[in-house]
Backbone:
């Protein structure tokens, strides 16, 4: 079983390894948390939030997203170094839970980026499959244009603008192009999470299953000969 399939089941809290062979436990949120050990912080919190159902990590996840998009914005020259430093001040105050010393204009900019981080988390958390490619990301053997190959139907521009508290026009003109650049970063985190869980949980489970089957066969062989 692929991690994606199993985790999709976990989301409705009905995950079971119906293997037909006894002794293989169901996967619990604690298993997910253990499977994520060793992941870098951003993907780690994303994995906890999305797959173990731990809502308490949302704030810290959003801070990591905020920091990551700050780095990306600087790298893509969407913001100046000065504004990047403002983001750092804002982030530190957010982390410590105290009021930031920024003026209204500076705070507005950071609030927009804060909302943008939240929108990204919201986007990655949903399982809203693209209708064109049915969530596969491929349409007629090519990356699906409806979802840019992500397999997911994104919020409409109007919904996005509303989420970030901006008029659609300024969202489309100023922020949406950057938001589109941020999405692959989050999808990348998700791939890290799934890869990690695949290795740590499913490959191990499959090994257990193989051992169980192998053990059974051994027993049968012994039974026949003896
Ligand atoms: Zn699609």
Residues:
């Amino acid at each position: 079983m692929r991690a994606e399939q199993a985790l999709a089941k976990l989301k409705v809290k009905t995950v079971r390894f119906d293997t037909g062979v006894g002794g293989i436990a169901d996967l619990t949120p604690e298993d997910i948390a253990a499977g994520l050990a060793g992941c870098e912080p951003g993907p780690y919190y994303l994995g906890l939030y999305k797959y173990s159902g731990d809502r308490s990590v949302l704030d810290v996840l959003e801070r990591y997203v905020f920091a990551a998009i700050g780095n990306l914005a600087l790298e893509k020259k969407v913001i100046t170094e000065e504004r990047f430093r403002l983001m750092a001040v804002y982030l530190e105050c957010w982390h410590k839970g105290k009021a930031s010393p920024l003026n209204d204009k500076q705070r507005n900019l950071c609030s927009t980026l804060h909302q943008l981080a939240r929108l990204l988390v919201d986007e990655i958390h949903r399982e809203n499959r693209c209708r064109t490619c049915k969530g596969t990301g491929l349409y007629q053997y090519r990356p699906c244009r409806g979802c840019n190959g992500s397999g997911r139907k994104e919020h409409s521009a109007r919904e996005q603008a509303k989420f970030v508290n901006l008029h659609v026009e300024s969202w489309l003109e100023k922020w949406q192009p950057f938001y589109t650049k941020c999405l692959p970063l989050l999808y990348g985190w998700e791939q890290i999470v799934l890869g990690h869980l695949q290795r740590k949980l499913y490959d191990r489970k499959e090994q257990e299953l193989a051992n169980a089957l192998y053990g059974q066969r051994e027993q049968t062989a012994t039974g026949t000969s003896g």
The chain has one domain: 3-225.
